[in-house]
């Protein structure tokens, strides 16, 4: 299996608390992006001490209450399945805080981390605050929910976005990359993909490859898998009959999403 593909670990931490994924600097080749997925049964809680990291808590499914010790956001989250295709609520928390997430219903929660050295206010990012975009045409159609885009100064380095790709369509396509710290032309951002499929027995294909092909991995990605993109192009292809959801976390030295399309495939965008 590719070193970029992570299957659910399903590590039971306590009664009602399961760590589905844990991507950290220690167990991956990522230095900016950290990512966890936690499943919570009703009334169970998960704690996290944020030392040098900022965090965006995304209520993927179910209802949760998030507190940073000072402020509390109760009963947030808007959906029972990500495939309801509506935005959800999230909470941004700066470093040096201890957060507690308590489930009001059965819930799946994503924790998106990035390095931080400037304290910023804790903030509820309401579903209604997500910028919703419809991108692409022909078989390149996807719906994007911008949770923490680079136009929103609420975070130090975190960028968070969720993407729905229709059946038999492609996204993160034409292939683009952001692996050069060379602004204003391109930014360096690592990225993680947390994938789900509808119906859940589906799979998608994701290729991660660099310009010189020294990295070139094509992965069959199943429900609840995570793909790590330390660098390179990272397109996703969705087979007929299945819809795709993914949550992206990006972070790097500068909080700007400036990508470079692979020249050979840029014509895809320019079709009438
Ligand atoms: O528009 C899309 O297809 C989504 C991608 O932009 C995705 O969020 C990504 O690859 C970000 O670099």
Descriptive notes:
The chain contains 1 helix and 26 strands. With 272 residues, the chain is mainly β. It has a single domain, classed as Sandwich (Jelly Rolls). The strands form 6 sheets. The protein has a 7-stranded antiparallel β-sheet, with no helix packed on it. It is globular. The model has no long low-confidence stretch (mean pLDDT 97). The structure holds the ligand O=C(O)C[C@@H](O)[C@H](O)C(=O)CO. The site of the ligand O=C(O)C[C@@H](O)[C@H](O)C(=O)CO has 12 residues, from β14 and β15. The site of ligand LN3RO5KU has 12 residues, from β14 and β15.
List unreliable stretches of 5+ residues.
Answer: none
Distance between the termini: 39 Å
Radius of gyration: 18 Å
Could you say which overall geometry the principal axes of the C-alpha atoms support? globular
Mind describing the biggest β-sheet?
A: 7 strands, antiparallel
GO molecular function: 5-deoxy-D-glucuronate isomerase activity; glucuronate isomerase activity
EC number: 5.3.1.30
Organism: Oceanobacillus indicireducens
Function: Involved in the isomerization of 5-deoxy-glucuronate (5DG) to 5-dehydro-2-deoxy-D-gluconate (DKG or 2-deoxy-5-keto-D-gluconate).
Structure at a glance:
The protein is an all-beta fold and 272 residues long.
Detail the topology: elements first, then pairings.
Layout: E1 5-6, E2 11-14, E3 17-23, E4 34-40, E5 45-49, E6 53-61, E7 64-67, E8 72-76, E9 90-93, E10 98-103, E11 107-115, E12 123-125, E13 131-135, E14 142-148, E15 159-165, E16 170-171, E17 176-177, E18 179-182, E19 186-188, E20 190-198, E21 203-209, E22 216-222, E23 226-229, E24 236-237, E25 243-251, E26 260-261, H1 267-270
Bound molecules: the ligand O=C(O)C[C@@H](O)[C@H](O)C(=O)CO.
């Amino acid at each position: 299996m590719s070193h970029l593909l992570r299957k659910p670990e399903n590590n039971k931490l306590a009664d009602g608390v399961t760590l589905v994924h844990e991507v950290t600097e220690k167990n991956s080749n990522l230095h900016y992006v950290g990512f966890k997925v936690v499943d919570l049964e009703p009334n169970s809680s998960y704690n996290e001490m944020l030392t040098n990291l900022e965090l965006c808590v995304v209520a993927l499914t179910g209802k949760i209450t998030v507190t940073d010790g000072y402020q509390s956001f109760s009963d947030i989250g808007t959906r029972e399945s990500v495939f309801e295709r509506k935005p959800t609520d999230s909470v941004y928390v700066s470093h040096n805080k201890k957060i507690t997430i308590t489930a009001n219903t059965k819930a799946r929660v994503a924790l998106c981390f990035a390095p931080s050295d400037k304290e910023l206010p804790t903030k509820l990012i309401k579903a209604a605050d997500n910028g919703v975009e419809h991108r692409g045409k022909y078989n390149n159609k996807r719906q994007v929910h911008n949770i923490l885009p680079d136009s929103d100064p609420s975070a130090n380095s975190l960028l968070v976005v969720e993407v729905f790709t229709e059946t038999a369509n492609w996204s993160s396509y034409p292939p683009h990359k952001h692996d050069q710290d060379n602004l204003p032309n391109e930014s360096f951002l690592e990225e993680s993909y947390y994938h789900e499929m509808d119906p859940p027995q589906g799979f998608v294909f994701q290729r991660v490859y660099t310009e010189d092909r020294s990295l070139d991995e094509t992965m069959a990605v199943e429900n609840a898998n995570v793909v790590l993109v330390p660098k390179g192009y990272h397109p996703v292809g969705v087979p007929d009959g299945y819809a795709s959801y993914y949550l992206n976390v990006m972070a790097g030295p500068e909080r700007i999403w400036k990508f470079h399309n692979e020249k050979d495939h840029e014509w895809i965008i320019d079709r009438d």
